Amino acid sequence: MSSYLKKYILAALLLFAAQLTWGQASLNFFRSRIRPYSAALTLTNPTSVNSKYGFGVEYRRGRWAYCVNRFWNVGVYKGKSSDFGFKLYMRNQWRHQKNLWAYENFVYMRVLSGESLYQPEKFESLGLPTSFETLVYDYLGLSSGYGRRYQKGIFFISVRAGLKGTYMGLAEEDKIYHRLFYVSGPGSVLEVNGTFGIQL
């Protein structure tokens, strides 16, 4: 049997197993009408405190929610940032049959701005180049993606993933210091975030 055929068979089996798993999991949920929250206070995922921390507020009207957030970055690119954005929730909402927690899916878009201070001594093991001057840059960005919000009572957890574009206006000689800014720093192209909080 050729290696290509083995790969196709393995992919088909994985797809079939995933379909069965999703089918079984979906039996535990039913379509429901969730009373929309009108306001929420959010905090960043506590596991990300080594790179950033922050908080935000949300105001919701029907399927639309408007958000303002403030973050402090504490990694190699120390600084602070703010963003304003919106979420559009999908029409379908789902509730667990036994535990009565529910979830909603949404798409989002946000505009962000901030400042970044290059601090290579934070992680010397990475072997980042040392700068002989203080490098502080302002940046602007735009991000968009897809997320899911889980809630039970007044508590919720929200996760999202998407793509982000950031403009920093770097001087040519400073670009070498900001390579990680677009990979794992505040300007990371791939955006994955989690927040939790309370809603009213």
Set out the fold topology.
Layout (H helix, E strand, L loop, with lengths): L2 H24 L2 E3 L7 E6 L7 E10 L2 E10 L3 E20 L5 E17 L17 E17 L2 E13 L22 E10 L1
Characterization of this structure:
The longest helix has 24 residues, at 3-26. The chain has one helix at 3-26; strands spanning 29-31, 39-44, 52-61, 64-73, 77-96, 102-118, 136-152, 155-167, 190-199. A hairpin with a 5-residue loop joins strand 5 and strand 6. The protein is mostly beta strands and 200 residues long. It has 1 helix and 9 strands, in the order H-E-E-E-E-E-E-E-E-E.
Keywords, separated by commas or semicolons:
single chain, 200 residues, mainly beta, 8-stranded antiparallel β-barrel, 12% helix, 53% strand
